[in-house]
Amino acid sequence: MPEGDTLYQAARLLAPLVGSAVENVSGSSRAAHQWAGRLARQSVESVESRGKHLLVHYTGDLSLRTHLGMTGQWHLYRREEPWRKTAGKARVVVATADHSAVCFAAPDVSIGPSPMIEDEIAHLGPDLLARQFDPGTAADRAMASPAASAADLLLDQRVMAGIGNVYKSEVLFLERVHPRAVPGDLDRAAIEGLAARARRLLWANRSRGRRNTTGYGRRADLWVYDRARRPCRRCGTHIEAEELGELSRRTYWCPRCQPGPAGSDMP
Question: What is the pLDDT of residue 263?
């Protein structure tokens, strides 16, 4: 599931493109068709992740942005190497003399002048995988979020960029916050704690092939995500799961380790 760590790894995967001239651009996306001629005369200057977005910057003040959604993937191949997915799923292909960078099945692809691409992601909160990350900035932004629950707050990319469904459940568990908790009922220290925990988890997993939030190894990779009706690794209570929040995303929690506020009817 593409979250901030996945995009960070994708940016590292495409790093061999930097300094290479683009020979051609293709793919099924409208952006690839519209900008193929302009990009084919440029060289790759840098590749970076920004939250759940991947950015490829070119000479000529042009940039390519992709959001992978639930299904997208970036692959890098040697020019004569066979692809592991069908060409029909290729949304954009950037070919240099040595490599083909292929973005498969991404729902959101845009190419254009770099200032335009930056405008498209100007709403993002601080990137959890940036070299410098301040939990206080995320807490400031949380005050303006319309999120009705803690689960939705963590998915609000305007607050901090990079958390998806997996880290949402894991962060809430580790900070002992119920997913239905009202953000306005959380004090600033609690929100900064959520942000700091998210930063630590994504940073620890930025170079791993398999996510781990427990520190216990491959037999216990995650605390609660995808563990409905299984015993909590901490207390033994059965993990609960439900589609929660504005987007009805599957959320996992331990009702004992993450109790609702006193007097609430949160399960």
Answer: 45
